[in-house]
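hey can u check if this looks right to u? its 294 residues, i copy pasted from the old doc so theres a chance i mangled smth
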Amino acid sequence: MTAVRVAAHAKVNLFLRILARETSGFHQIETAFALLELADELVVRRTDSGVTLEVSGPDLGPSDENLAVRAARLVLDATGNHFGVAIKLAKRIPVRAGLGGGSSDGAAALHAVNMLAGNAVPRHELLHFAAKLGADVAFFAGGAALALAWGRGERQFRMPPPPSLPALVAVPPIQVATPDAYAWWDEQNRSPAPRGPVNLDADALSTWGSIGRLGGNDFETVVFGKRPELRSVYQRVAETGPVWVRLCGSGSAVAAVYRKERERDDAVQRLGSTQQRLIATATRAEPAPGVQAL
C-alpha cells in the first residue's frame, strides 16, 4: 500500500463545563463530543523520507506546527523512519472556530500513516500519541460518533449517538483562540465556586430534544462578553427554531440542529450570508469511515 485517503470530521460539544484550572495551567472539563458530516480530507502517500504538507484552503501557518505533520512524525519515529509521507490536506472545516478541524486532521494522519506502516503501532499506543497531541485529538482518534469526556478531555466513554439530523454551522468573520478563551474564563473565575454534580443517564443523550435540555457551554458567557458580535450570531441562530444550539467549543462558530432539512434550509434563508459564513451539514449517527486505500 502506497497511498490512502481519510476523512477528518468536525465535532461539536453538546455541553461543556469548565471545572478547575490545574497548577500546570491546563483546565479540567466535562463535555460530550459529537461528529458532524462536515469534514476535511487527507490523502497521504509514501515517500522516501521526511514529511511534507500541501494544503488546499486557508493558510494554516508553519507546517512544523500542524497537528497532521506532528502526528505523522510520531508514527514514523515509532516505526523506525523506514519511509516518509507526503500529505495533501483539503481544508473545509473553518479554523479557530471550535470545530476541532486541526485536531481531527491530526487523528486522521495518525491512522493514515500507521496504515501505510502496516498498522505497526498498536491501537492503545496510537491513542496515547493522540492524547499527547491534544484532548480533542484523542476523541477523533478513538473513532466514536459520540463520547462523554472528562479530565482535559482525554478520558472518554463512548455512547450510542442520537439519530442523524440536519445541522447548520454559522461562522462569523472573527476567530477565537482557545488559550484566549480560557484566559478570559480564568479572569472572571479567580475563585470559582464548587460545581454541582451532573446526573446523566443513557436517555439524556439519546435524542436531540433531551440533549437540548442539558447544561450549556461555559465558554458562552465569557466569550460573548468579550465578543458581543458572537452573542448576536448566537441569538439570530437560536431564533430560527433549532432543537439544539451552542457555541462550538471556545468559538467562534455557532452550531444548530434541526428536525428537518426544510427547517435548516429555511434558517439559511433567514440568516443570509452577509455577516457570517453558513455551512449546511448534518450530525453523524455512525463512526467516521476510517482510512481507505487508493
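DSSP finds nine helices and eleven strands in the chain.
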